[in-house]
């Protein structure tokens, strides 16, 4: 009998999210999959779950010895002899992956209008500690495109989806796919901009279904749907496939993605510990998505929801719900 199904359906009743799917997996494959309504298999805006895919591409390229994790952004971009180059010398790939590169957490690039590097050069340096930064993974996008000569969607295809045989994963999905609406507008980011005194007049109209487009403003308005921090769409099975790879791999080129790095507040090279994850590690996405991996227990869980698809700002504590689900699974195993 499923332990997950009643918890997911109760969460719908309690207003945590309107719709959700899950896939419980071990090293051999999916053990259980389901949806709160219907057969499932729909495509979600996975938001910041894009980041571990970006990290996987970085680690794959490093494994081929094309780059080293201690290389800095200035060298990789070929901009060492300029003020921005001086600023980016501290931003090694390792620091970018672990959010310790002294970059700010967020900035509405779409409201500025200038080029990415021009804006980046004027942003203040962050604190010398772990600061969860969308900007760091935007910078990784630029670095990966520069060193490979590929568009970013091609980078993810060549180094992640094709080698790991993850088929149901893409940027800018076709509207013919069974897409889950992710939100009703950009109300959360509108509020963030107002709080910072930033004006932007091209937000989606209120109470408008957002389908097949990233909810994230920088990913959608600034990067055209394709960024290193957000923008990917996937099915639950596809997210579970990435989790299965990290649950199973013993390749030292990739195990750093699920291993906490020294002095990084529990951050790994792609995932993180703590929070919603009572054991192992994982990653969450703002739209209501998450991937949990527990190598010791030998299981993982992909859980995708559309928690923003309401006519009000989100109120439910999704991390508490995720943690409850993960703890329930651990108790059952033990």
Give an account of the 3D structure.
By secondary structure, this protein is an alpha+beta fold. The protein is 36% helix and 14% strand. The protein has helices at residues 4-13, 50-63, 73-77, 83-88, 93-97, 116-122, 134-148, 152-161, 187-195, 217-222, 236-248, 252-255, 318-333, and strands at residues 20-26, 29-35, 44-45, 169-171, 232-234, 272-274, 277-285, 289-294, 299-305. The strands form two sheets. It has a six-stranded antiparallel β-sheet with strand order 2-1-9-8-7-6, with helices on both faces. A hairpin with a 4-residue loop joins β8 (289-294) and β9. α2 (50-63) packs parallel to α7 (134-148).
Task: Please tag this protein with its features.
334 residues, alpha+beta, Beta-lactamase, 6-stranded antiparallel β-sheet, 9 strands, 36% helix
SSE blueprint and pairings:
Blueprint: H1 4-13, E1 20-26, E2 29-35, E3 44-45, H2 50-63, H3 73-77, H4 83-88, H5 93-97, H6 116-122, H7 134-148, H8 152-161, E4 169-171, H9 187-195, H10 217-222, E5 232-234, H11 236-248, H12 252-255, E6 272-274, E7 277-285, E8 289-294, E9 299-305, H13 318-333
Antiparallel strand pairs: 1-2, 1-9, 3-5, 4-5, 6-7, 7-8, 8-9
Helix pairs in contact: 2-7, 2-8
Task: Give a nutshell description of this structure.
With 334 residues, this protein is an alpha+beta fold. The protein contains 13 helices and 9 strands.
